[in-house]
Structure formats: structure tokens, C-alpha cells
Amino acid sequence: MDLDPATGLLSLDSRFRTPGDAKPGVAMRGQRWPHGYAGTAVPHGTVFSR
Question: Quick one: which of 1, 8, 40, 44 is 20 to 30 A from 34 by CA?
């Protein structure tokens, strides 16, 4: 997140992204996870949000 101190507006830092991905954020698809699972994950924020 970027905060504009003059206006107080928040914006997504476009540099924060999975390497090689076109969109900002963390890609959860097609990953190999430390506990052995390989595939697309669902972040907890998505699971518990309405």
C-alpha cells in the first residue's frame, strides 16, 4: 500500500507482485507449497470474508 500524505488516500503499490505476473499482488495459482500441496490455494481472507 502507498499512502499519499497530502490527501490521505491509499493505493496499491504496483511494484508488489509475484515475479513475472502482470497484475499486482501475490499469485496463489499453480504454486508448490512448503507442506507438500501443489496447486491453487485460497487465501484465508477469501475464505472468511462475506
Answer: 1
